[in-house]
Amino acid sequence: MGLLDIRNLSVDFQTAGGLFRAVDGVDIQCERGEILSIVGESGSGKSVSMLAMMGLLPWTAKITAEKMEFDGKDLTKITKRERRKIIGKDMAMIFQEPISSLNPCFTVGFQLGESLKLHLGMNRAERKKRSIELLEMVGIPAPETRLSAFPHQLSGGMNQRVMIAMALSGDPKLLIADEPTTALDVTIQAQILDLLVSLQKEKEMALILITHDMGVVAETAERVQVQYAGQRVEEQHVTGLFTDPHHPYTSALLNALPERAVGRKLPSIPGVVPGQYDRPTGCLFAPRCAHVQDDCHGVVTRQSDALGNALCNHPLNAEVTA
Amino acid sequence: MIGFLLKRILLLIPTFIGITIVSFGFVRVLPGDPVLLMAGERGITEERYAALLAEFGYNRPMWQQYLEYLKDLLHGDFGNSLVTKQPVLSEFFTLFPATVELALCAIVLAIVIGIPAGIIAATKRGSFIDQSIMGTALVGYSMPIFWWGLLLIIVFSGTLGWTPVSGRISLLYFFEQKTGFMLIDSLLSGQKGAFASAVQHLILPTIVLATIPLAVIARQTRSAMLEVLGEDYVRTARAKGLSARLVVGVHALRNAMIPVITVIGLSVGTLLAGAILTETIFSWPGIGKWMIDSISRRDYPVVQSGLLLIAAIIMIVNLLVDITYGLINPRIRHQ
Hints:
Number of helices of chain A: 12
Helix content of chain A: 25-40%
Oligomer: heterodimer
Largest sheet of chain B: none
Shape of chain B: globular
CATH superfamily of the domain at 90-286 in chain B: MetI-like
CATH architecture of the domain at 90-286 in chain B: Orthogonal Bundle
Strand content of chain A: 15-25%
Distance between the termini of chain B: 8 Å
CATH class of the domain at 90-286 in chain B: Mainly Alpha
Structural class of chain B: mainly alpha
Largest interface: A-B, 29 and 20 residues
Radius of gyration of chain A: 21 Å
CATH architecture of chain A: 3-Layer(aba) Sandwich
Structural class of chain A: alpha/beta
Shape of chain A: globular
CATH class of chain A: Alpha Beta
Number of strands of chain A: 11
Distance between the termini of chain A: 29 Å
């Protein structure tokens, strides 16, 4: 049995202009000890689906799902109190902006110790000992002195390490990393990714890596799920995805990698993700798609496993896999 | 932090000099002078008027008077009242405890009710509770203090007879003022019922004086809280599995308090400077009433030195607020 099983998850936000669908019937499965990457550009609903699962969305969000199971527990049925026992312990999350994600008014030691006290009921001495171990584990030098530091006294990379240490404090079965390296320096990015992957192997936990950076995906992920405008448009193993993308959006994302640029100009995908008022009928990617055909504006079919479950009437590289 | 404090204290010197100029000039700009006002409606002959002016030294050029005032100040001499002949400093310290007692009671009431009300309004944003709290706060903020005080007196003292109309304690009790704070002195006196009487006398002035700061604190807490609740670190705190009470009461509150402390500090400053309206309505023998009386008598020494003392208190309070700031917000402490 998988660790995480989400079927047909939709999230709608109540806005002044009516309901806005941020996540549209997404399925997410994750096995124990697996690295799953969710890719897509800004506004494709990657973070929202994860926040929905954690129960961290504001009350304006309406969450519906056929199934939302984590570690054998039905997340749609449990009470808030029961969910609070899971999040921060078995299921933890780190965020994009490490500096603003830590509370500026409390020391690193306090913020780390808080989780240990809440979920593991450790006393003061145990908390201190464990906090030092955790900081050591995430590669923070002189962890003892760092406990009394405030977030603004540490660099972005160090803060992200603290966030990771905090997330790992309850020995989670699943760690969700929401664009963990986007706000960091390029050199630090690689260090943080290496750290995440090595910890994932060591702790045998599952890792869901949300990113818009195909480079990050190539380096870390095992399985990749591509999201566009709140929909899951393709899902494949990482090697297959890079050699034979089936959905035109995946292919366009790959072509937009700076490494693949020919000439002086960086390639990009024309247009932007449709918003609340310009949602097309039929395939949501059709207005930006290079391979668009007439029937794309009508019903869209979900392709088979062999074609990466692509949500596309005219998948690319169909003959290779067939 | 020490460097920061030294800098702040050094900055007080030019501020003080500025205040002496303003307080010295302000009362002399007003039409009329102490001699004319002492003479009253009976009038006064030219010669007598000139002689009295010369006696007080008010016939000399303004700059000479100012320099002499500064010289006296530097020698610790704040001057004597023209009316009571008492030293300004001792009058001030006799009246100041009454003002402090009232101001502290008011600010405590405002904080104890205002902060929780603001937090509740913010966490129940848009609800009926939020709208009721904010509506009440707006009414409180807009209420003319004079009218509000009289209304309370009519209802609670006049109609219901629950509280006394004015003063600090019932005339039945008499004891030595040891601290100047009626609540403490009445307890120390050991006289039965004295403390209860002091409390009764404090209730209405406290409510009246607390009304505006309470409304301001509630509104400021709400808006600061709303801003902080949308921050990333609040999401992190919730992602840890902390209960809503801990998220709001620990993680959000500490950050939301930073602007609220400023507002509280400003209120304390103004309240300590003497709540002029409230003290007048309730005949509360504090420095607000003292200043008003002195201005109407053109008692130059009292006004100019009194203003200086009040300004000094406001500046000290502001300095304390800045220090509290540093304690709450580590980013300031380490700058």
